[in-house]
Structures are given as structure tokens and as C-alpha cells.
């Protein structure tokens, strides 16, 4: 009952309250990024698969510039990630625009993170079950290592959440997320500016 009905109602109420309360923070972040990103904009959207693999546009604060090399190709992520962007990402403030995705119904507050659409054909049948629920701003995998754990482990945690979703589990994840943000754990994969690409299970 919670997963199929009350979870969505609670998400909408909490997202609306969060947008109102955090609007000054979002405005301040937008101003900082407008300067740091050198005219590259402050919000960007990416196509991501949601519940049942349906594609939608996820919103995030933009933490990188659009700087390019002499051939017009974007520089590596590590070179485009500004100091301001690194701070905003480490505090998870870049995820705040996804509150609007929650209101639209594309996302939930808690659930498996929405990943790249090119990963869809690479999942095993079991891993693909992560799309049985709406993707979340934070989730069970995020509070157990986020980008610092392996893809295999991340997908195991996502599917575990799908099978055990409850109000009390979501509440626990919210509390653990606050702790993770404060101590800034698991932001990046070792040796990567963010995390490595998923190349399948072989």
C-alpha cells in the first residue's frame, strides 16, 4: 500500500515544502554557478530512464564549464569541474532541481538513482528490476557508498530496495543521506572526477 499509493502522496507534499524552504539556497547556488561556469548556464537536463524504463529529462545544477580543446571537443570532466562546482557536488546541492522532477512524477525522493539510457541493454534481468519503481534523488545504494562502490554492488542494493521498500526504510535512508552529505562520503570513484561508466557485466 505504501509503495503503490502513500509514497507518491508523501513525495509530492515533501517536495513542495522543500522547494519553498530551500528556494533561497537554490537561488544562491544559481548565482554562484552563473559566475563559476563562465556563461555555460546554471541548470542542465539529461535524458534518463525512469519507472519501467520510460525516458524523461532529469534536472540538475550544472557544475562544469563547457570548455573545449582546439578541436572543439569538450575537455575531460576533471578539467571542466570548477572549485565551486566541486563544492556544490560534494554537498549534493546539485541535486536540488530534481525536486521539480518529483512533482512532475518522473522521480521519487527515495529510489534507485536514474542512470544513463545507454545502460539499459547492458543490465541483467535481475539488475533491470531497479526500474520497477521511480528513480530517486537519493537511495539505498547512495547511503552505502554512492559512487565509491562497484556497479555490481550498486545494482544489488537497488534491487534490494525495490523488494523491501517501506515508509520506515525511506525514513532511514533520508537520515543516512543527511549524514552522508555532512561527512561528504562516496562522492567520487577513486581516480575519477565522478564515477566510471558501466560497460556491462562481462
Automatic annotation (TrEMBL):
Pfam families: Bac_transf (PF02397). Residues 1-27 form the signal peptide. GO terms for molecular function: phosphotransferase activity, for other substituted phosphate groups. Keywords: Signal, Transferase. Coiled coil: none annotated. Belongs to the bacterial sugar transferase family. This is Sugar transferase. It comes from Phocaeicola coprocola.
Amino acid at each position: 500500500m505504501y509503495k503503490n499509493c502513500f509514497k507518491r502522496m508523501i513525495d509530492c507534499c515533501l517536495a513542495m515544502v522543500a522547494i519553498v524552504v530551500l528556494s533561497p539556497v537554490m537561488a544562491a547556488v544559481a548565482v554562484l554557478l552563473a559566475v563559476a561556469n563562465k556563461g555555460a548556464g546554471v541548470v542542465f537536463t539529461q535524458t534518463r530512464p525512469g519507472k519501467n524504463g520510460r525516458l524523461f529529462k532529469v534536472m540538475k545544477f550544472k557544475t562544469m564549464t563547457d570548455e573545449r580543446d582546439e578541436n572543439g571537443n569538450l575537455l575531460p570532466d576533471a578539467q571542466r569541474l570548477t572549485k565551486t562546482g566541486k563544492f556544490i557536488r560534494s554537498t549534493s546541492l546539485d541535486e536540488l532541481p530534481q525536486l521539480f522532477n518529483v512533482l512532475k512524477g518522473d522521480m521519487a525522493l527515495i529510489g534507485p538513482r536514474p542512470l544513463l539510457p545507454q545502460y539499459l541493454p547492458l543490465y541483467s534481468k535481475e539488475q533491470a528490476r531497479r526500474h520497477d519503481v521511480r528513480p530517486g534523488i537519493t537511495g539505498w545504494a547512495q547511503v552505502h557508498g554512492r559512487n565509491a562502490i562497484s556497479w555490481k554492488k550498486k545494482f544489488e542494493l537497488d534491487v534490494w530496495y525495490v523488494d523491501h521498500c517501506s515508509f520506515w526504510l525511506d525514513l532511514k535512508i533520508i537520515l543516512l543521506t543527511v549524514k552522508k552529505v555532512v561527512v561528504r562520503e562516496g562522492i567520487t570513484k577513486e581516480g575519477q572526477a565522478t564515477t566510471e561508466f558501466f560497460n556491462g557485466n562481462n
